[in-house]
């Protein structure tokens, strides 16, 4: 074996808090590796993990996710925390070059091994390592003859100073608690004198096959130049194939050196998003040899695919400057996207592979083909991208800049560039990752215009271009009023959030059609999770009537009530059961209208991303899946609206008066790259009692990757009609159902419903003017404590 790995992750760490600076004064960094001693009674801890989860496990914290406990944990971030791990080293490592590798520590730390200071590191996302061969003890002690000590500094409090280098912790859906911990694995890696540090894979399609271009970073740890051979082998990972090999000889001077290899793959099996083909993957093995001896060996899984960007048709150069259509292996992909919404848990110690597997399987079930990781949340861990590779889900990855006015000071910019480069290097070989982006809402206010945000986003794009061919976008959105004042064109990208935050100022049928741009990276609607889930984090005495913990967990109660008025005609406050169910149906109804509207606009529009698929703590907000992994009713609406082959109804309003003439357009959207000739679209219109009062059949030849109008529905609402009516669409071919869809429309006065919403909005604004944006406005009695 050429490479020996000892994983130091796991549950054998111990941790303790100290006043800042006190740990070194106490000599924790020079403790001997002994079974009895000062750390014997320290709390046990898990790596990867976080400080808060370790403390909750030890009984020093109540569950921060329950009630309003999160703020009660703020004391934790005022201390430094020491993590210590004792271990033995295998005799097989003796005589090799051994590196201690940290995949990620949040946020800054200092490391000692057996009393030897190794160094310090700052930056959550950048891995770092130390060559430790001379400091290790190879004796075998029952408790471990080596002792690794990591001092975590108190986390930073001002996100502006660490944007791009740390996950966001401040904003309108955070509590201000700052996460920190050894959040990624720690390993000892032993190799011979020349090792593989990193590599980059790029694909080129050729007639009858493909060429895989590999750029391999080698490290020669001797003082003399070394001649080595690099042997590359590729074979099918999720399909059967022969093994393809390629060997190149390289002269490696002392230090690091790039080596290049090209592997020609005949009859290449391409990686595709799941709705465009099969996500084929290849197993890749790279060996470094010297005179037949293997010095190092690395294995990975890659995909063969190409990626280009095209400008969206229908816009002039004065309207849109940037290309927003993703072209994978020569074919356009419409992004039926969702903002991922953070890791499964805000606290890293609560995350697991099984959670990722469960949630990403549900992503595909919802017919989502893209996930957008935007700047409020960290770029995801390798497990996430690996699963997306396997499932055929493309990923849009933001760096962590969000809604702040950042500095363009050269030292800050340089530190950020280095961090972003490391983020790229760790994720660039995943075929699922199709887009990098600088910032989230960093061209969003007057203050941003005066800041260094634009220069910073541009600098990041330049910094990473030598490390990846994946496209880069400056920020999202570009075409709001502030972005346009900074010189961006009016039809680039827009966030479709004002319907939600407007709280009834405009109805969905007014707001969403008015947005005209190439892509919508964020579209917001919200709802409460199930009562079963609410009971897990809302105290019983606050469930109903709603207590302060609702607002504490991000519930915009007045907005949710306003959306219920828009969709149902009243606030739906008769019971907890009625309110929760109504919010979830309203959530789904709004998303159905908006998502289908923008899908019908393809290819002029190239994607839309709902906000969010999940959220990272128990919330009353945007997710289709709640924190506990349970689907909301809105999930089913999105699953229907995101069918790759979609029969869709276009209408101008949801309420129609008795005697009024209803009109709707019948569309078929096809995201598959195949034709459906001789298709039949059947439709029915049923009254409130379920009786079909009108129906029809249309014959349609549906073109590949298209959106087209095929007919219309006309119906005069009965003079005595009341309640609602339902329109059902079914698309068939050869008698076999391909897809179906359903719409619930109302009998009523649209203008009167709007008046009710505006009245409710005014009442909400009055409370906000008195109590501010704080959730206290929902419980004004909090200001009357005795």
SSE inventory with pairings:
Elements: E1 4-7, E2 10-18, H1 22-26, E3 43-47, H2 51-57, E4 80-87, E5 97-102, E6 108-113, E7 116-122, E8 128-131, E9 146-152, E10 186-191, E11 194-206, E12 209-220, E13 226-236, E14 244-252, E15 255-266, E16 282-290, E17 293-302, E18 307-310, E19 325-328, E20 331-333, E21 335-339, H3 353-365, E22 370-373, H4 382-391, E23 394-398, H5 410-427, E24 433-440, H6 446-450, H7 453-464, E25 472-476, H8 481-485, E26 493-496, H9 498-501, H10 508-514, E27 519-524, H11 531-537, H12 540-543, H13 548-552, H14 557-568, H15 576-600, E28 607-611, H16 633-641, E29 645-650, E30 655-656, E31 661-670, E32 676-686, E33 692-702, E34 706-716, E35 724-733, E36 736-747, H17 750-771
Parallel strand pairs: 21-22, 21-28, 22-23, 23-24, 24-25, 26-27, 27-28, 30-36
Antiparallel strand pairs: 1-10, 2-3, 2-4, 4-9, 5-8, 5-10, 6-7, 6-9, 11-12, 12-15, 13-14, 13-16, 16-17, 18-19, 19-20, 29-31, 31-34, 32-33, 32-35, 35-36
Structure description:
It is built from 17 helices and 36 strands. The strands form 8 sheets. It has an 8-stranded parallel β-sheet. It is an alpha+beta fold and 786 residues long. The longest helix is centred in the C-terminal third of the chain and has 25 residues, at 576-600. The chain is globular, with a radius of gyration of 28 Å.
Properties at a glance:
single chain, 786 residues, alpha+beta, eight-stranded parallel β-sheet, six-stranded antiparallel β-sheet, 17 helices, 36 strands, 22% helix, 34% strand, globular
